Amino acid sequence: MVSKLDGYARLGRAKHPQKVLKRKRDAEDPVVLEQRVADFNLKEVDVKNFTDLPLSLPTVSGLDASHFKILTDIQAKAIPLALKGADCLGAAKTGSGKTLAFLIPVLESLYRKRWTSLDGLGALIISPTRELAIQIFDVLRKIGRYHTFAAGLVIGGKSLQEEQERLGKMNILVCTPGRILQHMDQTASFDVNNLQMLILDEADRIMDMGFQATVDAIVEHLPKERQTLLFSATQTKKVSDLARLSLQEPEYIAVHEAAPSSTPSTLQQHYVITPLPEKLDTLYSFLRSNIKSKILVFLSSGKQVRFVYESFCHLQPGIPLLHLHGKQKQTARLDVTTKFSAAKYSCLFATDVVARGLDFPAVDWVIQLDCPEDADTYIHRVGRTARFERNGRAVLFLDPTEEEGMLKRLTQKKVPIERINVRQKKQQSIKNQLQNMCFKDPELKYIGQKAFVSYVRSVHVQKDKEIFKIKELPLEEFAASLGLPGAPRIKFLKGDSVKELKNAPRHLPSSEDEGENVDGRKQPKEKKKEEVRTKYDRMFERRNQDVLADHYKKMIEEDDEIANVDDGLGDADEDDDFLTVKRYGYADDIEGLNSSAAPVSKPRLVTAVGKEPIIIDSKRREKLLKSKKKLLKFKGKGTKLVFDDEGNAHAIYELEDEVQFKERGPAENQRSKFVEEERERVRAADAVDKRLAKDKKRERKEKRRAREMAEREAGEEVHVQLGASDDGEIGSGDDAEEGASRLVKKLPKKRAKKWFEDDSEDETRHAKKRKGHTIEAVEEPETLEDLEALASGLLG
C-alpha cells in the first residue's frame, strides 16, 4: 500500500489476497444487502454495536480490525439514515465520532453499487484544513482496508502534475476546498459527473465567508442528483446554506441539543482575568508549573505563534515546545502533528488551524491565550481535550474589557465556565528577559513587531465589538511586554483621520502659540512678529503625518525666548546650547549684531537665468558656487533636441497637425499601413541579418580549415639529410658536423622517462630509425665519439 503522503491508497491490500476478497464479495450479493438496508427500521431495532447495522462484510471486518465496536449517539442516528440515501445535517459535540458517521455510508454506498475504477469518482469528502483531511484519510484506510476502492488525498503542498496523473483513477477523494477546485478547473481527466456522495466535515467552517465562494464554485461542477452529508460540532440550519448545497429534504440530526452543556461533561472549564500586558508572564508561569503535561495553546495569528515559540525556546520553560500555523510547509505541519500526537509531555503553540476535528491523544490542557472570535470557536478549541469520555481541562485568558461580552456569548451557548485566580507567589515576569533578547537579536525584535501588528489587526477585524474594544486596550504596555522598545505604528487604526493629517499644516505648535480647532485638533495661532526661519528650522518642524517619533519632538521644541538665529558672537554665558549653527547674511541679524563683534562680510545677490536671486552669505557657499557644476542646478532647464539625417533639430516628441493626420485617411487604415510597412522593414532587415550571419559563418569555417591545414603541415615528420652529395655518398668531417647540428635543431626534445625504465637503460638508449637517408635522433651529440656513433649508424 502506498503511504498517505503520496495521496493514494488501494483500500483492500492490507491482509488478505485479492482472490480471497473477490470470493467474499461475490458470496455476498449486493442486492440482498440493499434489501437489508431497505428493511432496516431504526425505531424497531435497538442499535448499540456496529454488527447491528446492515453493513457489508468488508466494512464489518475493517471496523473489527480497527477496534471499533460500540456506536456513539451521532453514529447510531446518522448511519442508518445515510445508508438509506437521505441527505443529513449532523451536529454533535467534539470527540463524539462524527468521522465514522459519514465514512461508513460512503463505503457502503459504493459497495452496494458495485463501484469500480472504471466508474470514476464516487465520493468527495471536503475538509477545511489539511490536518483534518489527513486524519480522515487515515481513518478511511483503516476501516476500508478490506474494500477494493482507490482512495486519494488531495490537500495541496505537492506538485499539481503528480496529483493530476492519479486523480482520474480515484473512487474516493479526501480534499481541501482550494486544491480540489484547482483540479476541477485545470485537470482535464478529472470527471465528477458520476459523483454519488458529497460530504462536508466541519460544514459550518467550510460554508462561512472564508470558503463561501470556493464552495459555490465546487457545487457548480457537481451533478444535482447526489447525496449530501454535512457534519459539525456547531451546525446551523440556514436556508441559504442548504439552498447553495442543493440539499433535498435533509434530515437534521442533533443528539446533544437537549443536553445541559454544549461541551463534554468530563471537561473542566475555567477563565482567568489577565490584563493584556501580563498574558505572556502568566503563560510562562503556567508552563513552568505544568512541565509534566500535554498542553495546547491557541493564539489568534501565525506571527504570534512564531514569536511566542521563538522567545519561549530562548527562555526554556522546561517542557518540549512545538508550533503550528498555516504558513508552514505541508511536510513541517505533518511532522509537528505527528510529534505532538506521539509525545507524552509537550506544549504546542497553534492557531485555529488545529481547532477543528483533530484528535490529539491525551491532551491535558487547552489554553486560549487570545480570546476566540465567538462561542463556536471556543467550543471547537476546547474540544481538543476530553475526547471520547476522557477527562480534560481548559483555561481561557480574558482581558478585563473582554470579560462581560464573552461570558454572555458562552452562556447563550450553554457553556459552563468558572473563574479562577492566579497565585501571585508562582507568577514570574519575563518582560526584562524579552527586552534583553529583542535588543540582542534584531530578528526576534522584528518578529515581535509583526506579532504585535497581527494581534491588533485580529482584534480590529472582529465583528463583535461588544467583546473586542480595541480603543480600550493598553497597546503601549502590551508592546513593552513583548520586549519591544515602543509600539509599532498601526496604519489601519487611523481610519478617516488620514486625510486630515495629510492636509494639516506642517508647523509644529508649541504650548504657547497653539489653539484648538472645532474638531479638537490643535491649530497654530497667528504669530506675533516676523521670525527668521531657515531651511533647517522648516525641516525639523515638519510633522509629515507623524513620521517623527516623540523623542524628536522633544529635540526640536525650544523656548521662545532663545533667538532663532545665533551668530555665535555674543556672550558665551547667554547660550545654553552645547552645539550651535552659525548663520550669516540676513538683514535682521546684521543690524542686531553687537558692535564689538567681528565684522561680517556683506551678503550679495547672484542672479541666475530662470531662478530667484541667490544670496551669497558665506565664504563656503561663495566658493561652492564658483563651480560651474554647482551652478547648473540654479540655471533654467534646457530643451533636449534630436537631429535627423539632414541635420535639422527637432524636439524629442512632436505632435502632428490634426488636420494633416485626418487628410491621410482613417486612423485604422493608417495603423494597418504603418504595421505593414514596419513588417516589411523588419522582414528586409531579417534577410540582411541572415545573409551577414551566413557570411560570417562561412568565413569562420574557412579560417578553421586553414588553421587545421597549417597544424597538419607543422605536425608532419621532419626529414633531414646530412651532407648528401649528388652521387649519393654521405659526407664526412665538417659536412657531417654541420648536418648533425641542423638535425639537432629540428629534432624534438628528449622524451620523459617511463616509470619502468632505469638510468642505465636511459643512458645507453638512442632512438635511431633508418629510412633511406633519414635518421631520427633523440639526444644531441656532444663529443666526437657521439658523432662517429651517429655516422656509423647511418652507414648501417
UniProtKB/TrEMBL annotation:
<keyword id="KW-0690">Ribosome biogenesis</keyword>
<comment type="function">
    <text>RNA helicase.</text>
</comment>
<dbReference type="InterPro" id="IPR001650">
    <property type="entry name" value="Helicase_C-like"/>
</dbReference>
<keyword id="KW-0694">RNA-binding</keyword>
<feature type="compositionally biased region" description="Basic residues">
    <location>
        <begin position="693"/>
        <end position="704"/>
    </location>
</feature>
<dbReference type="GO" id="GO:0016787">
    <property type="term" value="F:hydrolase activity"/>
</dbReference>
<feature type="compositionally biased region" description="Basic and acidic residues">
    <location>
        <begin position="661"/>
        <end position="692"/>
    </location>
</feature>
<feature type="compositionally biased region" description="Basic and acidic residues">
    <location>
        <begin position="705"/>
        <end position="719"/>
    </location>
</feature>
<keyword id="KW-0347">Helicase</keyword>
<feature type="region of interest" description="Disordered">
    <location>
        <begin position="501"/>
        <end position="533"/>
    </location>
</feature>
<feature type="compositionally biased region" description="Basic and acidic residues">
    <location>
        <begin position="518"/>
        <end position="533"/>
    </location>
</feature>
<dbReference type="Pfam" id="PF00270">
    <property type="entry name" value="DEAD"/>
</dbReference>
<dbReference type="Pfam" id="PF13959">
    <property type="entry name" value="CTE_SPB4"/>
</dbReference>
<feature type="compositionally biased region" description="Acidic residues">
    <location>
        <begin position="726"/>
        <end position="738"/>
    </location>
</feature>
<keyword id="KW-0698">rRNA processing</keyword>
<dbReference type="GO" id="GO:0006364">
    <property type="term" value="P:rRNA processing"/>
</dbReference>
<dbReference type="GO" id="GO:0005524">
    <property type="term" value="F:ATP binding"/>
</dbReference>
<feature type="region of interest" description="Disordered">
    <location>
        <begin position="661"/>
        <end position="784"/>
    </location>
</feature>
<dbReference type="GO" id="GO:0005730">
    <property type="term" value="C:nucleolus"/>
</dbReference>
<dbReference type="InterPro" id="IPR000629">
    <property type="entry name" value="RNA-helicase_DEAD-box_CS"/>
</dbReference>
<dbReference type="InterPro" id="IPR014001">
    <property type="entry name" value="Helicase_ATP-bd"/>
</dbReference>
<feature type="compositionally biased region" description="Basic residues">
    <location>
        <begin position="743"/>
        <end position="753"/>
    </location>
</feature>
<keyword id="KW-0547">Nucleotide-binding</keyword>
<keyword id="KW-0378">Hydrolase</keyword>
<dbReference type="Pfam" id="PF00271">
    <property type="entry name" value="Helicase_C"/>
</dbReference>
<feature type="domain" description="Helicase ATP-binding">
    <location>
        <begin position="79"/>
        <end position="253"/>
    </location>
</feature>
<protein>
    <recommendedName>
        <fullName>ATP-dependent RNA helicase</fullName>
        <ecNumber>3.6.4.13</ecNumber>
    </recommendedName>
</protein>
<dbReference type="InterPro" id="IPR025313">
    <property type="entry name" value="SPB4-like_CTE"/>
</dbReference>
<comment type="similarity">
    <text>Belongs to the DEAD box helicase family.</text>
</comment>
<feature type="domain" description="Helicase C-terminal">
    <location>
        <begin position="279"/>
        <end position="438"/>
    </location>
</feature>
<dbReference type="InterPro" id="IPR027417">
    <property type="entry name" value="P-loop_NTPase"/>
</dbReference>
<dbReference type="GO" id="GO:0003723">
    <property type="term" value="F:RNA binding"/>
</dbReference>
<dbReference type="GO" id="GO:0003724">
    <property type="term" value="F:RNA helicase activity"/>
</dbReference>
<keyword id="KW-0067">ATP-binding</keyword>
<keyword id="KW-0539">Nucleus</keyword>
<dbReference type="InterPro" id="IPR011545">
    <property type="entry name" value="DEAD/DEAH_box_helicase_dom"/>
</dbReference>
